[in-house]
Amino acid sequence: MKNAMRSLMVSLVLLLASAYVPGPAGATQHYQPWANPDGTTPDARLQGFVDKLNAIIGEAEKARAADPRLLRDLKALADKYKQPLLPGQAGRPSTKQLFADDFADGDFTRNPAWTVTQGKFWIEAGWGLRSAVKHQAQPEQKRSGGRDDAAAIFGQILQQALDPKGRNSGGGTTTTTSAAQPAAIRTDFRLANGFTIEFEFSSWIREDKTPGRLEIGATQGGDSAGRSSGYFLAYGQGGLWELLRRTATGTRVIDSRQGAQGLEDKKTHRIVWTRRADGLMTVSVDGQETLKAADQGFRDAFDGLGLVNRGGDYIVKRVQIYATQ
Fold it and tell me: Range with the lowest mean pLDDT among 36-40, 139-143, 149-153?
């Protein structure tokens, strides 16, 4: 472990040294700097440094060669100096940033403002916006009809009176597992019909081990239960990805894919969801294209971004949204 940590630190020092080598103090410059049109610019060298730093961090994570807190700090440093892709560059056909939030200020109610419409959200220090919805065991009454129903109800009342804590409860009910009410949050702003939504999140397995589901969407209107119309990207714990079109009449699955494995590895994953003006949508997960489909069910602009937790424990670290061509 010590050797791996030493190797990591040496690599970082070498990268820093190669990224910027100052000239001698007080040296006289006889010539003006020459910009080679075929060479690398300072911004390109900085981006190269960031890319190499991210590669080292990734290797250290896989080998568990450093404290996770140190790796998170290094990721934050790399993200701080990451150069935005320009229009036309591979990976982001962006023209204008519309929205950005990394929850670093510890307050999601302002700058920018998010509104919780149902359930609970909070800031997990050092991680991001968190929501946890667990599945609950609920009693299901066995139905027989007529006098048997009346007798069963009377029996339950009598049982509760004699044993209020339910220590000796017997037959008459079965137990089913169902999700609690979803937790929903949204932020309002005008979002063009063509957009790129980039977000980073981690997915955590709760004690009940029941697979959960997280949805993020470009919305038109909405209510307290997260039943907004619009396009939604859904992740089901275990690796199921779906692109959805949701309207007042129902939900249609535009594209879906069951991944080989889920993201429940205690790591932050980067999702890029792009919709072009012609309706073509693509979704990449950690740089790998996962979904691709076209739909023109919505042609107007959207009025905000919504997050819905329908079971599970999730932390959203960062959200960035761009208008696209």
Answer: 36-40
The pTM score is 0.61
Query: Rounded to whole angstroms, how far apart are CA atoms 21 and 202?
Result: 37
Range of the domain at 207: 94-134+181-324
* Distant-in-sequence, close-in-space partners of 165: CB < 8 Å, separation ≥ 6: none
For the chain, the straight-line distance linking the first and the last C-alpha, in angstroms and rounded, comes to 48
Q: Using DSSP bridges, classify how beta strands 302-309 and 213-220 pair: parallel, antiparallel or unpaired.
A: antiparallel
**217 falls in which pLDDT band (50, 70, 90)?**
very high
User: Are 255 and 242 in contact, with CB atoms under 8 Å apart?
Assistant: yes
Name the domain count of the chain. 3
Please, what is the average pLDDT of the chain?
Answer: 75
Total residue length of the chain: 325
- Cα 79 to the center of its chain, rounded Å: 16
Calpha distance 268→166 (Å, rounded): 42
Would 281 be classed as within a structural domain?
yes
Do residues 115 and 251 both lie within one domain? yes
Above 70 in pLDDT, residue 63?
no
Instruction: Tell me which of 159, 179, 199 is where a domain ends.
Output: 179
Quick one: CA torsion of 237, 241, 247, 249, rounded to 10 degrees? -80
Q: In this structure, is residue 190 part of a structural domain?
A: yes
Half-sphere exposure of 59 (CA within 13 A, CB side): 12
104 in any annotated domain: yes
Upstream peptide bond of 211 is cis (omega within 30 degrees of 0) = no
Q: Which residue has the higher pLDDT, 65 or 287?
A: 287
